[in-house]
Amino acid sequence: MGLPFHKLKKLYILYLFLLVFAFFMFAISINLYVSSMQSNGGEGSHPKPPPKRRSLWPHKNIVAHYIGKGDIFGNMTSDDYNMNQFRPVETEGAYGRPVIIPPRDRFRMQRFFRLNSFNILASDRIPLNRTLKDYRTAECRDKKYGSGLPTASVIIVFHNEAWSVLLRTITSVINRSPRHLLKEIILVDDASDRTYLKRQLESYIRVLSVPTHLYRMKKRSGLVPARLMGAEHARGDVLTFLDAHCECSRGWLEPLLARIKESRNVVICPVIDIISDDNFSYTKTFEKHWGAFNWQLSFRWFSSERKRDTNVKDATQPTATPGMAGGLFAIDRKYFYEMGAYDSEMHVWGGENVEMSFRIWQCGGRIEISPCSHVGHVFRSTTPYTFPGGMIDVLTTNLARAATVWMDDWQYFVMLYTQGLSLHVRESVNVTERVALRKKLQCKPFSWYLENIWPEHFFPAPDRFFGKIIWLDGETECAQAYSRHMKNLPGRLLSREWKRAFEEVDSKAEEFTTLIDLERDKCLRPLKESAPRSSLQPVTVGDCTSHAQTMDLFVITPKGQIMTNDNICLTYHEPKQGMIKLLKNRNATTSNVMMTQCTNDSRQLWTYDMDTQQISHRDLKLCLTLKSATNSRSQKTEKVVLTMQCDFKDITQKWGLIPLPWRM
Ligand code: UDP
Ligand code: MN
Q1: Protein residue with least CA distance to atom 11, ligand 1
Q2: Listed residue (341, 366, 372, 318) closest to 434, CA to CA
Q3: DSSP tag of 651
Q4: Through-space distance between the first and last CA atoms of the chain, rounded to whole angstroms
Q5: What local confidence, expressed as pLDDT, does residue 39 receive?
Q6: 221 alpha carbon to ligand 1 midpoint, in Å?
Q7: What phi, psi does 19 have (nearest 5°)?
Q8: Domain locations in the chain as residue ranges
Q9: Residue 52 DSSP symbol
Q10: Alpha-carbon distance 134 to 137, whole Å?
């Protein structure tokens, strides 16, 4: 019985074939599923927080990702580099929808991504005049701006921008700005070398319905010199700067112009919506975001409630922001020059938004975000272009210029605690002219800016503690000296005031700092070194880090907020059942003390007992304690800081404040 051998063989081959076929179908469907999941991100009806502006620190992130032209040519031809593959399909990307690249083009898509650090294949399928939704609130849509608004010159600078992306920016400006308010569009080419940006671009703009002028930098200079060139040629009342990869949505221009008409010393920014670098979907962001800078002067978005400076409950009113992202804003043309335009010695990219934010506020102006103006921007996670002069050197020089001119005492803090920046870099910059400008405009000190414009800031200050929080296990020299000092203080029994503690440790700062032993002393710090700063992080005690690392550095306010870089605060955070489950799935350790965004609420207020050296939660009266906890997934024990009943004999509850210098 049984089948003859040749039939068996046939069956076997058929079976194999079916197996392979099934496997392929499965792979393709998974691929499609994943990409549809990714692209659905843009469809969500909830506004998203804006992504960070490209983060500059730590350097290794940039250097590792950085793709210069040399590398592109490494596996791309010069034809690839100069090719314009714009082939729009009528409904692609309509209403801000994502573009899904067919599986057959996936490889090509990945190959070409690196040219621009965004998915050019997606952009090349979207018409230049694609429709967008109306992202404004009903109040904004109903708002009437009346006649007599000033006119705008829209200035777009670019270096090697992709054709469809640049032209969609221009098209959206033309189609969504009232013609009588748009004086002109000014393009400045920062010495691009892609061929389509030469004659082809010149003939394209010649026939546009709005006068569009193209100027070219003789050599690659950077966005500041390019914008300065654009501004020189502008004739409109208001300069409106945009990046070359934006899409203006309905009604974007009027609120900006109206605010400047109302008050010419306001620099006004739109809400920056997100155009996905992956599929070019357009996603509305929260209107209530505001911006500022971290310890390394990288721009950051924040979402905590701010006291609004207008008392009217008008949701169309712009809100003040301590910092501007830099790419998209409008400013009165004459005011721009009165205020010193830009620091023309800032090259290529970076630092100019820091400088402008400090300068405008300190010299009597304001920076605001208008909730009624929505403009999309393609946020990229890496830099596609070259950095003549070297990325680190250029960036640190630009930042050193901004810090030296505007930050007074705080410039040293930035130099001391930012890798790559140093007092040495500071010595190498000549900012005489900008210092003279500051004097001429009679600008206020940086302390005024921090106290009045950015009271929630997480920088050190004269009435704050800055330094490390060490665990006083009683053995190290530093811990012993600290405990001895605290024990011998008169009146210590009564004091639970941070201020008093700050004064006491300050008087011994030098001794404590020199006694710290990086090998043996243990510092309060996040459990995971590389975890994203924005997420919930457990806290631990570990090796204290060397000077320029900021992981174990804290600022403590007189009110009792224990803050660190990027607006992160030590928070009492009772894990909810659901949260425990979530964290368990994420392979994490749970604790009731976490590092999370500072919000200025009572969960983030702590007190210090100089007598027992305990840090306790102000309201709950529970003490910060070092304990072992088990990681849910790995089952490894980890040392975690949490709160427990206070016990003055418990060595795991004793903490010392070791101040570090931050100004000269
Ligand atoms: N840009 C320029 N020259 C440079 C660097 C940038 O003209 O050397 C332009 C760039 O094409 C863009 C704008 O300046 O239109 C802002 O740069 P980018 O978008 O890279 O900054 P990001 O938005 O990532 O902060
Ligand atoms: Mn940009």
Answers
A1: 158
A2: 341
A3: G
A4: 97
A5: 40
A6: 11
A7: -60, -50
A8: 138-305+315-378, 391-453, 465-659
A9: P
A10: 9
506 CB-near residues (< 8 Å, 6+ apart): 659
312 — pLDDT class (breaks 50, 70, 90): low
Rounded (5°) CA angle 138-143-148? 155
CA distance 101 to 353: 35
**Cα–Cα dist 664/661, whole Å:** 8
**What spacing in Å lies between the alpha carbon of 353 and ligand 1's midpoint?**
12
To which residue do tokens 């050197």 refer? 393
Q: Do domains 138-305+315-378 and 391-453 have the same CATH topology?
A: no
Indicate if ligand 1 lies below 6 Å from the C-beta of 277. Answer: no
Strand partners, 523: 470, 542
Q: What is the CA radius of gyration of the chain?
A: 28
Q: pLDDT band at 44, cuts 50/70/90?
A: very low
CATH code for the part of the protein at 138-305+315-378: 3.90.550.10
Residue 3 carries which side chain, given as an amino acid letter? L
**Residue 3 in this model has a pLDDT that exceeds 90:** no
Can you tell me the distance from the alpha carbon of 550 to that of 84, in angstroms, rounded to the nearest whole number?
45
Averaged confidence pLDDT in the chain = 87
pTM of the complete model = 0.89
Q: Can you tell me the distance from the alpha carbon of 124 to that of 88, in angstroms, rounded to the nearest whole number? A: 6
Indicate if ligand 1 lies below 6 Å from the C-beta of 113. Answer: no
CATH code, 391-453: 1.10.8.460
Tokens of 464: 């704050």
Average pLDDT over residues 85-111: 94
Which residue, 148, 396, 357, 174, is CA-closest to 269? 357
- Bridge partners, residue 524, by sequence: 541
Establish whether residue 92 lines the binding site of ligand 1, counting it when its CB lies within 6 angstroms of any ligand atom.
no
Which atom of ligand 1 has the smallest separation from the CA of 220? 8
Is 190's C-beta closer than 6 angstroms to any atom of ligand 1? Answer: yes
Residues 324 and 368 sit within 8 Å (Cβ to Cβ): no
Helices and strands (H, E) in the chain, number of each type: 22, 24
Name the more confident of 392 and 134.
134
Distance (Å, whole) CA 161 – CA 16: 49
User: Which residue's alpha carbon is nearest to atom 6 within ligand 1?
Assistant: 223
Top pLDDT among 299 and 37 is at: 299
Percentage of residues of the chain with pLDDT beyond 90: 66
224 lines ligand 1 (CB under 6 A): no
Query: Which residue shows structure tokens 């000296």?
Result: 481
What is the distance in A from the centroid of ligand 1 to the CA of 645?
54
Q: Does domain 465-659 have CATH number 3.30.450.20?
A: no
Listed range (22-31, 87-96, 207-216, 648-657) with the worst mean pLDDT: 22-31
Ligand 1 midpoint to CA 52 (Å):
15
3-state secondary structure of 222: strand
Q: What's the 158 CA to ligand 2 centre distance in angstroms?
A: 9
Alpha-carbon distance 190 to 604, whole Å?
47
**Torsion sign, CA atoms 130, 135, 139, 145:** negative
The larger pLDDT score, comparing residue 538 to residue 426, is at 538
205, two tokens: 């703009």
Note the pLDDT of residue 506.
92
**144-171: per-residue pLDDT in tens?**
998 999 999 999 999 999 999 999 999 9
Question: In this structure, how many other beta carbons lie within 10 angstroms of the beta carbon of residue 481?
Answer: 16
Q: How many residues does the chain have?
A: 664
- Atom 16, ligand 1: residue with shortest CA distance: 243
Write b or e for each residue in 361-375: b if 16 or more Cβ atoms lie within 10 A of its Cβ, otherwise e: bbbebbbbbbbbbbb
Mapping DSSP onto H, E and C, the string for 471-495 reads ECCCCCHHHHHHHHHHHCCCCHHHC
Q: Which ligand is nearest to the CA of 157?
A: 1
Q: Which ligand 1 atom lies nearest to the CA of residue 380?
A: 24
